[in-house]
Amino acid sequence: MLKKALMGAIAISAMFAGSMARAENLETFRVGIIGGENEADRLRNYQCIVDKLPKVLGVKDVKLFPATDYDGVIQGLLGGTLDYAELGASGFAKIYLTNPKAVEPILTTVQTDGATGYYSIMVARKDSGIKTLADMKGKKLGFADPDSTSGYLIPVTSLPKDIKTSVKEYFSETGFGGGHENLVLAVKDGKFDAGTTFGSGVGSFDEGYTSGNLRKMVDKGLIDMKDFVELWKSPLIPNGPIVIRTSLDADLKNKFKAFMLDLPKSDPACFAATMGGDFKSYTEVNTQFYQPIIDARKAQIGG
């Protein structure tokens, strides 16, 4: 039902794309949640936000809209039918290249080591006999989602430097797994020889690192990292932004930002649940922080 509601909201927004958002009289604060993880898990992880934000923002309620993929949330933000979402850097780049005034990037996470970045990580089954990137030549590679930074954009732009040719020429076949969680499960099931997902790169690979998709899957008991091997790790990627609809009332935006900045201290469990792992804090960002990713996306896929 929520997925249908999101798509319906997007369709309605197209009819009123030129109208001003009802900022001062906002009654419902609408949260978009990108796809790639079990919907029940996503709703449960964000429930603490639903419970806390109405009082903070002075709205009647907060509603969650989990999309089946990244683009569902991207289109909701572009259409003005969503007010807040956590995106990957490439997802934000897609929005910015379409309409630079649609949303504002305001915060990102800080890793436990103080870094404001993470990594694209290529994994394969340990029992596959594939131990290095060189072993993947002529094999089938899976990506997470076409709008994913770590699951697609960074691998297709960074891998050629290491394999000395294009992704298309090096691998026998590529495909998409339908989000990060589904992709790793597809690698586990042998549908891909390897796949690209994301992690903090901090801590132990055997634990899925301190945060990221692998860690979330380990914590949920979906995978055991002893069954996987890491084949490749990208250069550091800027952590994805928390974005808010630009046309919202300034006072509401300031209240939301202050609430989020305080969340790691006021409710560490909620912070960890919504962000998916161990992080130190949030830090403020702006569009300039994501300019390298915007440029990469524009060059690779034209927005």
Task: Tell me what the structure shows.
- The structure is a single chain.
- With 303 residues, this protein is of the alpha/beta class.
- It has 2 domains: 148 residues, D-Maltodextrin-Binding Protein, domain 2, CATH 3.40.190; 121 residues, 3-Layer(aba) Sandwich (D-Maltodextrin-Binding Protein, domain 2).
- The chain is 41% helix and 20% strand.
- The protein contains 12 helices and 12 strands.
- Strands 2-1-3-11-4-12 form a 6-stranded mixed beta sheet, with helices on both faces. Strands 5, 6, 7, 8, 9 and 10 form a 6-stranded mixed beta sheet that branches.
- Helix 5 packs across helix 12.
- The two termini are 30 Å apart.
- The N terminus is likely disordered.
- It holds the Pfam family Phosphonate-bd.
- This is Phosphonate ABC transporter substrate-binding protein.
- Belongs to the phosphate/phosphite/phosphonate binding protein family.
- Keywords: Signal.
- InterPro entries: PhnD, Phosphnate-bd.
